[in-house]
Amino acid sequence: MMREAVIVDAVRTPIGKRNGFLSGVHPVDLSAQVLGAIVNRTGIDPATVDDVVWGCVTQLGDQSSNVGRFAVLAAGWPEHVPGVTITRACGSSQQAVDFAAHAVMAGQYDLVVAGGVESMSRVPIGSSRATGQPYGPAVLQRYGGFGFHQGVSAELVAERWGFSRQQLDEFSAGSHAKAAAAIDEGMFTDHIVPVEIDGTKFTEDEGLRRATSAESLAGLKPSFKPDGVIHAGNASQISDAAAALLITTPERARELGLTPVARYHSGAVTGADPVLMLTGPIPATEKVLRRAGLRIDDIGVFEVNEAFAPVPMAWLVDTGAEPGRLNPLGGAIAVGHPLGASGAILMSRMLARMRRENLQYGLQTMCEGGGTANATVIELI
């Protein structure tokens, strides 16, 4: 009989903006902070952790050579505790959670930490492509030489779904407004790990711009096409952060005196057109709902990563989900998208909403470079 996997705790650092307060922290040390927080909050003996499954997208420079393993050592955990670093582009830490839950359900792990990190200040986005061509000639030939540029893909999605510049900017301003309200209501307080740097303690996401409005965004220049609709204000922010979740079985949780907060219900991953790579969350959502035996209306909250405004907007149109359930605490447009950490951050944000509103089911999904997407359903306990 398949075992259950449950989430005991979810923590994250505040999200730092590019060259902001977290830029001076090595990603290994940033990862170690959330690992330490998991131990401090739950009281587990780190020696009993079977593995640390860690997402990180740009694995070179300060993020090379297995960040997950070195995070274990930086946290002071016993040397026998392993760590692995994985990538599924922007969904890396969501995939880390999925892999960890799957291993627990299969009986290969009893206690595992999953999450991820990205220091985009120290290891800039796209730097892994600086000296090579990752797609290969056969892939480029198959798709007519298209370079699989996410910004251009966002323009194509906006065009296909007929979104105007004003609609995109209104959605983006709404993300800032919702994130500001969530911060003011203390929605993130319980799961943010304060980071202290040079005597200053940081506890809030740095990228939020409270004065953002659709009118202020209207003055920004398009980023990818001279007459385009995508710009810095309706795209996710370049950011730094780390996040982690503790996953185990209900039986092991009881043995350790821990109280699970949610059950891993279902997960799915799918591919989509790599030219329109940002549309993957739509079929991924359909797939995970089929697997879960649920309808879209059964889900109380959705977290759809705001890589670009057209992504959640197109998802909303095609799924028919209730708009008020989508990203109710804001998203990456407002507070940032630290690639390898974002999946775990979305999970922590979704759990906060589910617990506050007593919502039975939550679903998160992320578009990913190359045209893949993860979708995960969790159930409140």
TrEMBL record:
Keyword Transferase among record annotations: yes
Coiled-coil segments, which residues? none
- Segments forming domain Thiolase N-terminal: 6-249
Q: Does the keyword Disulfide bond apply?
A: no
InterPro entries listed in its UniProt record: Thiolase, Thiolase-like, Thiolase_C, Thiolase_CS, Thiolase_N
Write out the entry's keywords from A to Z: Acyltransferase, Transferase
Domain Thiolase C-terminal: from-to ranges? 259-379
The record's listing under Pfam families reads: Thiolase_C, Thiolase_N
Q: Where is the signal peptide?
A: none
Similarity remark:
Belongs to the thiolase-like superfamily. Thiolase family.
PANTHER family in the cross-refs: ACETYL-COA C-ACYLTRANSFERASE, BLR7806 PROTEIN
Q: Which NCBIfam families match?
A: AcCoA-C-Actrans
Q: What name does this protein carry?
A: Acetyl-CoA C-acyltransferase
Its organism's taxonomic lineage begins at: Bacteria, Bacillati, Actinomycetota, Actinomycetes, Pseudonocardiales
